[in-house]
C-alpha cells in the first residue's frame, strides 16, 4: 500500500509540474493545494493577475487565444517545410506590426522589434528584406536585426533582450529542433519573457512538434491570395491581392487543432478572416489576359505538332 501511495503522489507531482509549464489548471490539483494550505499563506494560480493580451481583430481566433496574442510570454510559430518559411516569417512580421501599432495607440513611446535569425536559418530561407518589410507594414526604422552564428549565441541574445523592456517584440528564428533548445531552455525563455513584459515569437523553421513552454503554437502554411478589389466592388481578374495565411492552432486549450484562413492587409495593418478558395480556383486560376507563354520560333508555328504514326520496333534482346 505504501508503494502505491508513493507512486500516486509521484504521478500527481508530475501532473502539477506539467500544468505549471503549460500554464493551465488541473481542478483536482487546485483543490488539493487548498486543502494542504488552509491558512492561505501561499499564492494560488487563480489569485495571480491575468496575463496581458493583444486582440488580433479576429473574434474566433481571439477567443481561442483567450483574449489575443500574449504580450508576456512565448508564442511558437513553425512551418513544416523550408518552402513555407516565407509564410511563417510573414505571419510573425504581421504580429510584430500589430505590437508596434498597439504601443502607439496607447500613447507609449515607440520601441523597436528585435529579429534574431540564427545563421543556419537565414542561410536556408534568406534574410528579411527591408523594402519588403516596409511594404508589409513594418516600421523598419524600429527594426533591429541580429545574425548570430550558433544556437547558444541566439539564445543568449534573446534572454538578454527579454531582460530589459526596450523592445515591443522579439522574434527568435531558428532552424529545426536543435538539442540546445530543449524544454528547459524553452521554459527559461518563457519565464524571461513574462518577467520582462516583452512578447517572444519563437519562429521555428522546418521544425516538428515537440514539448514547449509556449502559451500557444501555430503551424503556418501559405494559402492562395484573393484578387484585388476595384473601386466599384468588382474584382480584378488575374490579379494578386494581399497575402493569405493558413494558420493552424496546434497547441491551445481547444480539444483539437483549429485552422484559420487569415488575410493580412498592410494598408490597414489588420488581419481579416477569409473563406478558403475552391480547389479548382486555387490550383489553376484563369488569367485575365490569356497570351502564349512562349513566342513561336522563327519559321515555325507556335502550336504543338500532331503526332504521326507510331511504329513498334522489335526488342533487341
Give the gist of this structure.
By secondary structure, the chain is an alpha/beta fold. The protein contains nine helices and eleven strands. It folds into two domains: 45 residues, no CATH class; 227 residues, 3-Layer(aba) Sandwich (Rossmann fold).
* CATH classification class of the largest domain: Alpha Beta
Helical run tally: 9
Count of all domains: 2
Number of strands: 11
SS strand fraction = 15-25%
Annotated CATH topology of the largest domain: Rossmann fold
- What is the mean predicted local confidence, pLDDT? 81
**Unreliably modeled segments:** 25-48
Measured distance between first and last alpha carbons: 79 Å
Largest sheet, order of strands side by side?
5-4-6-7-3-8-9-10-11
| Main beta-sheet annotation | 9 strands, mixed
Class from helix and strand fractions: alpha/beta
Our Rg estimate from Cα atoms comes to 25 Å
Protein name: Protein ImuA
Organism: Ensifer adhaerens (Sinorhizobium morelense)
InterPro entries: ImuA (IPR017026), P-loop_NTPase (IPR027417)
Amino acid at each position: 500500500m505504501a508503494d502505491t501511495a508513493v507512486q500516486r503522489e509521484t504521478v500527481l507531482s508530475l501532473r502539477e509540474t506539467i500544468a505549471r509549464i503549460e500554464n493551465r489548471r488541473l481542478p483536482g490539483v487546485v483543490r488539493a493545494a487548498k486543502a494542504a494550505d488552509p491558512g492561505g499563506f501561499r499564492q494560488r494560480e487563480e489569485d495571480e493577475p491575468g496575463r496581458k493580451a493583444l486582440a488580433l481583430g479576429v473574434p474566433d481566433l481571439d477567443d481561442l487565444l483567450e483574449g489575443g496574442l500574449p504580450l508576456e510570454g512565448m508564442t511558437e510559430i513553425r512551418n513544416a517545410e523550408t518552402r513555407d518559411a516565407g509564410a511563417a516569417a510573414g505571419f510573425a512580421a504581421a504580429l510584430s506590426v500589430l505590437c508596434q501599432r498597439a504601443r502607439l495607440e496607447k500613447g507609449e513611446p515607440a520601441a523597436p522589434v528585435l529579429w534574431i535569425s540564427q545563421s543556419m536559418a537565414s542561410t536556408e530561407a534568406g534574410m528579411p528584406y527591408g523594402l519588403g518589410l516596409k511594404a508589409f507594414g513594418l516600421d523598419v526604422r524600429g527594426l533591429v536585426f541580429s545574425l548570430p552564428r550558433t544556437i547558444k549565441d541566439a539564445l543568449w541574445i534573446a534572454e538578454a533582450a527579454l531582460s530589459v523592456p526596450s523592445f515591443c517584440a522579439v522574434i527568435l528564428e531558428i532552424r529545426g529542433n536543435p538539442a540546445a533548445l530543449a524544454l528547459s531552455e524553452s521554459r527559461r525563455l518563457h519565464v524571461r519573457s513574462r518577467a520582462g513584459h516583452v512578447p517572444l515569437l519563437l519562429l521555428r523553421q522546418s521544425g516538428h512538434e515537440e514539448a514547449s513552454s509556449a502559451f500557444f503554437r501555430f503551424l503556418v502554411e501559405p494559402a492562395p491570395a484573393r484578387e484585388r478589389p476595384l473601386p466599384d466592388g468588382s474584382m480584378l481578374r488575374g490579379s494578386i491581392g494581399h497575402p493569405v495565411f493558413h494558420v493552424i492552432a496546434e497547441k491551445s486549450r481547444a480539444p483539437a487543432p483549429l485552422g484559420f484562413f487569415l488575410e493580412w492587409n498592410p494598408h490597414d495593418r489588420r488581419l481579416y478572416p477569409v473563406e478558403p478558395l475552391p480547389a479548382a480556383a486555387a490550383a489553376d486560376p484563369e488569367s485575365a489576359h490569356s497570351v502564349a507563354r512562349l513566342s513561336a520560333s522563327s519559321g515555325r508555328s507556335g502550336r504543338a505538332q500532331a503526332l504521326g504514326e507510331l511504329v513498334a520496333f522489335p526488342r533487341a534482346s
